[in-house]
Design a protein that fits this description.
This protein is mainly beta. The chain has one domain (3-86): Folate-binding fold (2-Layer Sandwich), CATH 3.30.2270.10. It has helices at residues 36-44, 83-86, and strands at residues 3-6, 10-13, 17-22, 52-59, 64-71, 77-82. β5 (64-71) and β6 (77-82) form a beta hairpin. It is globular. The protein starts with a strand and ends with a helix.
Length: 88
C-alpha cells in the first residue's frame, strides 16, 4: 500500500485520500453551454502522463485540498503542498 503526505496532517495511508483533478486542467465554462461530450471528456479523459504529474488531491480526514507532485512510473511522491502555498 502507498502512503501520501498531507501538508497539514503529515504521512498517511493512501486510503485517506481522493484524487480530484489534474493540476492546471481548465474546467469547461460556462457550465450551461457545455455539451455532455465535453463534460464527459473533462471528467474522464485525463492526460495520464508517464513520469512527473501534478494533481489536486483531497485528504478526506481533514478536508484539505492540496497539490501533489508524483512520479507515475516509480510511484514516488515528489512534493505535497497546500494550494495556497502552491499559488504564491
Amino acid at each position: 500500500m502507498q502512503a501520501f503526505t498531507c501538508p497539514f496532517c503529515g504521512h498517511r495511508d493512501e486510503t485517506e485520500f481522493h484524487f480530484v483533478v489534474e493540476a492546471g486542467k481548465p474546467r469547461p465554462e460556462p457550465s450551461e453551454e457545455v455539451s455532455d461530450e465535453k463534460w464527459a471528456a473533462y471528467l474522464h479523459m485525463g492526460k495520464a502522463p508517464k513520469g512527473e504529474a501534478r494533481e489536486i488531491w483531497l485528504h478526506i480526514t481533514c478536508g484539505l485540498y492540496f497539490l501533489m507532485t508524483r512520479d507515475t512510473v516509480t510511484r514516488d511522491i515528489l512534493s505535497s503542498e497546500c494550494l495556497l502555498e502552491a499559488s504564491e
